[in-house]
Amino acid sequence: MNFQMLFKILKKHMADGDDVPYFFRELMAMITSVTEEEWGTSKDPSKKMKDETLRNYSKRGLSKTLAKNIVYRLTPDFLTERINERNETQRKLLAEDLQSYDSTIDAENVGKRVSELMISVIQQSAGLISQSKLEAQKQAQLAFDLKNQYGNYLLAEAENTCPFPGCGRSLVVTGNHKFASLFEVGLIDKHGKASPENLLAMCPGCYATYSLDDNKKKCKELKAVKKTLLARRQIIQMLDELPLERGIVGVVTRIKKLQMQDFEEVSFDPKELTKKIDPSHEHLLYLTVKNFVLSYFVTVREIMMNLDKRGEIDYGSLQNQIHAIYRGLSKKNKNQMEVFAEISEKIHRQTLQEVIYCQVVVSYFIQSCEVFDAIAE
User: Fold this and answer.
1) By three-state DSSP, how is residue 173 classified?
2) Could you tell me the sign of the dihedral formed by the alpha carbons of 151, 156, 160, 166, in that order?
3) How far apart are CA 223 and CA 216, in angstroms?
4) What's the pLDDT tens digit per position in 322-365?
5) How far, in Å, CA of 163 to CA of 147, rounded?
6) Whose CA is closest to 276, among 180, 189, 205, 376?
7) Cα(68)–Cα(297) distance, rounded to whole angstroms?
8) End-to-end CA distance of the chain
9) What burial letters (b/e) apply to 103-139, b meaning 16+ CB within 10 Å?
10) Could you state, in order of their start, the residue ranges of all structural domains in the chain?
11) Could you read off the pLDDT of 58-96 as tens digits, one per residue?
C-alpha cells in the first residue's frame, strides 16, 4: 500500500468534512512529534503554496525529505488511540476498506494495523530498505542475544531513556506496582563487532527504523551519542567512588523546606564570583549561581553551621569532599557548566531531592571557594 491510497481511505473515514490540507496536518499531528516548520516545506513562500504542497503529497506520496525528517520521531500509539476512539461501526467501515490490502484487519485491530501501515509507508518514502523475512529473523535473534548479554549495562548507560537524537522515550514502563523494560539492543556500526562500545539500548521504534537505515550520517550521530554516554558513565563511576558526607541529605532537605519568611533581608554581595566564573564566557552559569548565592548563601551557611554544631554533619569534611570532587572533574577537563551539573547530580543521587535544590548547595560551595579556582589573569 502507498501513502496516497492510505491517506484517501483515512480521510474518507476520519476527516469529518475537513479539506485535504487540514486533514493532512491533523494526520501528521497524530503520527509524528515533528512540527510543520520541520517538515521540509519551508521553501514555500505562503500558506497557500504550502497547502498546494500538501495536496500534492496526498496525490503523489510523501517527499523523501519529509519522510526522512519524521521517520525517527513517529508516534504510532497516538494514531492508534485516535482510531480506537471511533465507535465500532466507524472502525468496521474503515477496516472493510483496508481488507483488500490486508485481510486480517478488523474493527478490533484496525487502529494498530493502520499505524503499522503508516510506519511502513513512511519508512519506504524515506528510502529505508525493507528486510527479507530471513534477514528480519536473523536480526531479531541477534537483538535478543545482545539484550540478554548486555541489556542491563546498556540500559543503565542510557539512564533508562532512549538516547536516539530527538527521541527521549522511557525504556522502562511501570504499572500495577510492576516494572518492565521496553527496549532493544542494536549495533551502531552494523559492520562492526557486537561489543559494548558498538551497542546502544534503543526504544523499539528507533531500533526498528535504524535497523533499516544505512545512512552513514545517522551512524556518525549515534557514534557521537555513544561517546558522550561512555564519558558520562566514566564520570559517574569516578564520582560514586568519592565519598560524600551523609549529612548532606539533611542540608538539602532543610533547603527544600525553606519558606519566604525564613529568609532575612541581608546585604550580601557575591563580589568574588566574577573571579571564578567569567560572565562573558559562562553568562547563564554566572547568573544562575549569582541568583542562588544572593538568595540562599547566608541561610544555607546558617543551616550548615547549626547541623555541624549538633553533630549531624562534619562541615570541614564536607568542604574537603566537595573540593575533592571538583578536583577530580577538573582533571577530566570538564568545563565549568559540566562541573556544576555533575556535582549537582552527585548530590541529587545521594539525597534523592530535586536537582534545583542540589544546585543551591553547589552554588554555596562555589562562593565559599570549594568549587572553581580563581580565573588566571
Assistant:
1) strand
2) negative
3) 10
4) 999 999 999 989 999 999 999 999 999 999 899 999 999 999 99
5) 16
6) 376
7) 50
8) 68
9) eebebebbbbbbbebbbebbbbbbebeeeeeeeeeeb
10) 3-125, 133-230, 248-367
11) 999 999 999 999 999 999 999 999 999 999 999 999 999
Main-chain dihedrals φ then ψ at residue 202, nearest 5 degrees:
-130, 155
Amino acid in the structure at residue 23:
F
For every residue of 50-92, which 3-state class applies, written as one string?
A: HHHHHHHHHHHCCCHHHHHHHCCCECHHHHHHHHHCCCHHHHH
d(CA 69, CA 126): 8
- 337: cell is 557548566
Determine the length of the chain: 377
Return the residue matching grid coordinates 491510497.
Answer: 5
Q: Output the pTM of the full model.
A: 0.74
DSSP symbol at 277 = S
> Taking the C-alpha atoms of 354, 360, 366 and 370 in order, what is their torsion angle to the nearest 10 degrees?
-60
Q: Report the SS3 class of residue 249.
A: helix
Q: How far apart are CA 320 and CA 334, in angstroms?
A: 19
How far is CA 183 from its chain centroid? 14
Distance between CA atoms of residues 133 and 139, nearest Å? 10
338-345 long-range contacts, Cβ below 8 Å, gap at least 24?
339/371, 339/372, 340/285, 340/288, 340/289, 340/366, 340/371, 342/235, 342/239, 343/371
Rounded to whole angstroms, the maximal C-alpha distance in the chain is 80
- What DSSP line would sit under 177-212, residue for residue? TEEEE--EEEESSTTS--SGGGEEEE-HHHHHHHTT
Strand partners, 184: 202
Grid cell in block for residue 134:
530471513
Query: Which residues partner with 187 through β-bridges?
Result: 199
In Å, how far are 133, 247, 370, 374 from 366, measured between CA atoms? 59, 19, 6, 11
